[in-house]
Structure formats: structure tokens, C-alpha cells
Amino acid sequence: MTYSCPFSIEELAYDEAVRIAHDTGKISGDAGPLLETVVDMLDELERPDSHFDCIQIAGTNGKTSTSRFAASILGGEGLKCALYTSPELVHMEERMEILGAPVAPVQFAHGVSAAREAGRRVNLRREEAGEARYTITPFDLLTVAAMVVFAEAGVDVAVLEVGMGGRWDATSATDPVAVAVTGIGLDHMRILGDTLEKIAAEKAAVIKPGRIVVLGEGTHEPGVWRVMSERCDECGVEPLVSSHETLELPACLGDRVRFACQTARRRYEVSMPKPSYQPQNAACAIYLCEAYIGRALDAASLQASLAACPTPGRFDVLRESPLVLVDACHNPQSCENFVSALDEIDPVVENRPALLVAALADKDVSGIVNVLLPAFPAFAVTQTASDRALPAGELAKLVEDELARRGRANASVEVFACVDDALDAFTAAGRDVVAAGTITLAGEVAGCLSRR
């Protein structure tokens, strides 16, 4: 049955929808944020998410890439597949894709309009009942908006990347038929907990009775594995445990990695133009999609889907001359994966470009710096436009102190007030650069280059 919004809405212009999605204060209240907020908004909209299957992917590292691979594989199998990820690199509508392409600005604005009206109606009813108005976060609003957009487009299945954690994440207001947990690392510790086991418990909450469950290779650490296994036992679920075998590593930037994975149904051998850390994410997606479809995947379609799947911001060459490569690594674990991929291509640090680094103040900045600094010969520091950005001066001091501690006090450290200034300087000098340290840096670099 075709879905349509059950009540009339005021259609917002695109720019206004983006503004509201960034700042939901006008439709928010004092209660929350709560998962019930999203549940009630979806109920108000007569459950657009019930018109298609949902697949939910949680994890600290690898969840965006795994989500993209899964959506690409399902599309290659002939399904009309949607994808919901976060954050965007450049434009907010990039968070919502159908058949591999971002939704049109008018679709995005319509979804936000419907979600805003649903939130307004829910909060009005709560106010009339003497209850506190819900606090509707930007992620709440966008999740509900995406469900409306996907339902009205008539998709068969939507792959939903968890925003943070799992237990209370807005995507958990849906009822997924299949879930995957890609891996666990120390991130968002002030919210999710300060140990791997506590963080794992928050993410393991997406495992529920009756769901297909895939556990990625990043869950194999003993403490994390114990948490995942106990949750599966509680829910009466037998998880699929993904694994892969790397057959051939990339020899240079843009080269292919070849890997194999053996599921219960078939052995798959695939090559794709991705760095060496991506096969474990692709393997997780293969296990997940095969289990969801209920049969072996078509080998030729799988090869084509993975080879063509974009992974924006992940070991992403945005310009070849002078080189600009970005990676969205944003915690020590993802930075280690990024550096390992660099080492496998060329282990000589002196051969590499300078590192342009920025960070968010609520991340493990010291851990990020400790991993990235030894991998580069020269450094530039900047800050993004995010209100969570660590000021460039503070980051520069941290970088300089760490270099001095490592006996590299004479290493070059340039400081730029913003990303545009940094790119202008590197471009004018014809110098190659690698940008890493936060997702927002990858996005701003991509946005700056798209305007040139």
C-alpha cells in the first residue's frame, strides 16, 4: 500500500528546512531527549517505517562504510534500497539516499516539513495533557524525515546507520528485521560509558529476539565478545560472525584490495578500489545482506556493487594534482586503521604529504594526535566551523608538545584559522596534503574543493 502523510503540512523551502534541521529549538521542550519522542512522531505519521524493511547497523568504527556496502549490495540484487547515514559531508540531504543517490532537495525539505509538523502535533497534545514537551533533537527530526521520504518513494528496504550507541538511538524507534554491530571502540565516552564493555552494552541493545544478527570483526575483543554473546543468549539469537581473508593488498593509492569471505552459503572473492581496512566492513555487509535475502548473493552483482560503491570521506582522493586525500578517522582506533593502510602502500614516512589535522573538543584528541603524528613528516593545524571544534591554537600546542616529546621539536607545524585558508595555502604552493582527524574536516575539505 502506498504511503502518504496522514495530515496536511506546511511545505518548507529547502534552505528553511536545512536551518530547522540544524536547530530544532522552536519545536522542542523540556522532556528528553527520549526514544519515545521518535516513536510518538512516527506514530503520529501512521508509521511510515512500517512500509518497508529496516536494517540497522551499529558500531564505533566502520558502520558508515558497512551501511554503504550493504545498500549497494541490496541495490545490486534488484531491491529498491534506501540508505540513512550521518553526518553529511557537504549537503544535509546526503544523509538520505535512494538507489545510491542523495534525495532531491525538495524531497528532503518535504520530509523535514512532515517531521516538524508531527513533532508540533505531538508536543501540542502533551502540553494539553499537562505533560512536558519533548525535546526533539536534529537527529530525531532527520530520522523521522527520512522515514517519510523513503516510504513515499516506495522503497523495499532501508539501511539505517545508528547515530550514537544503539539503545536510545533514534533509528531504534523502528523495528529492524536485521542488525549488525561492526566494532567497538572508545568514543562518546561521556554518554555511552568509559569502558569497551559499557559501550558494547549500549550498542548490543539493537540485538532483539527474532532479528537477524551479524557481529563484525571489530567485536571479537574478548570483553566486547562476552557482552555481545550474552545479549544474543538473552534474546535467543544465534549470531552470524563475519570474517574475511585478504588475498592481495593495494600497491598504491586507488589500487584494488582483493579479499574472500566464506559464509554458510558460498565463498565470495571480491576486488575493489578501497584501502586495506575496508574488506572487514564489506564482509560484514555480505553476511548481513545474504542473511536478509535468504540465499547466496549473485557473485557478478556483488563484485560490481562493491567496486562501484562510494565511501565518501574514507581514504578519499578528492584531487590528484596537487593531491588532496581525506579520511574521516575521528578516534584512535579509526586513525590506527588509516595509518595501517598508509603503511601498506608505502612504509616510508618521508615520502608522504603533510598532514592537515583538525579535531572536535569532545573527542580523544590526545589519542588521535598520538596515532597520526608518527605517520607524517610535516603538519598543518586548523579548525572546522563546528561549534564542537577544538580551537586551532589549542590543537597546535598539543601537536607541538607531542612532537617535542618525540624528539621532533624542529618539525614544521603551520596553523590556519579555517579550512579554506589551509587549502588556499597548499594549493598555491602546489603541495600535496592529507586531511584527517574528524569527519567535519573531511566534509569541509570536500565542500571547499567543490566550490573551486
Structural features, described:
The structure is a single chain. This protein is α/β, with parallel strands linked by helices and 452 residues long. The chain has helices spanning 14-22, 35-44, 63-76, 105-128, 138-153, 189-192, 196-204, 222-235, 279-293, 299-308, 332-345, 365-372, 392-405, 419-428, 439-450, and strands at 53-58, 81-84, 96-98, 101-102, 157-161, 178-183, 212-218, 240-241, 245-248, 257-262, 267-272, 316-320, 323-326, 354-357, 379-381, 413-415, 433-436. The strands form three sheets. It has an eight-stranded mixed beta sheet with strand order 4-3-2-5-1-6-7-8, with helices on both faces. Strands 12-13-17-14-15-16 form a six-stranded mixed beta sheet, with helices on both faces. Strands 9-10-11 form a three-stranded antiparallel beta sheet. Helix 8 links the parallel strand 7 (212-218) and strand 8 (240-241). The relative contact order is 0.11.
Major β-sheet, in short? 8 strands, mixed
Gross morphology: globular
Number of strands: 17
Main sheet: strand order: 4-3-2-5-1-6-7-8
Q: Determine the N-to-C terminus distance.
A: 45 Å
What helical percentage do the residues reach? 40-55%
Radius of gyration: 22 Å
Number of helices in the DSSP assignment? 15
Contiguous low-pLDDT stretches (5 residues minimum) are 188-192
Pairing-aware structural class of the strands and helices?
A: alpha/beta
Strand content: 15-25%
Mean pLDDT: 92
Topology:
Layout: H1 14-22, H2 35-44, E1 53-58, H3 63-76, E2 81-84, E3 96-98, E4 101-102, H4 105-128, H5 138-153, E5 157-161, E6 178-183, H6 189-192, H7 196-204, E7 212-218, H8 222-235, E8 240-241, E9 245-248, E10 257-262, E11 267-272, H9 279-293, H10 299-308, E12 316-320, E13 323-326, H11 332-345, E14 354-357, H12 365-372, E15 379-381, H13 392-405, E16 413-415, H14 419-428, E17 433-436, H15 439-450
Parallel strand pairs: 1-5, 1-6, 2-5, 6-7, 7-8, 13-17, 14-15, 14-17, 15-16
Antiparallel strand pairs: 2-3, 3-4, 9-10, 10-11, 12-13
Helix pairs in contact: 1-4, 2-4, 2-5, 3-9, 3-10, 4-5, 7-8, 11-12, 12-13
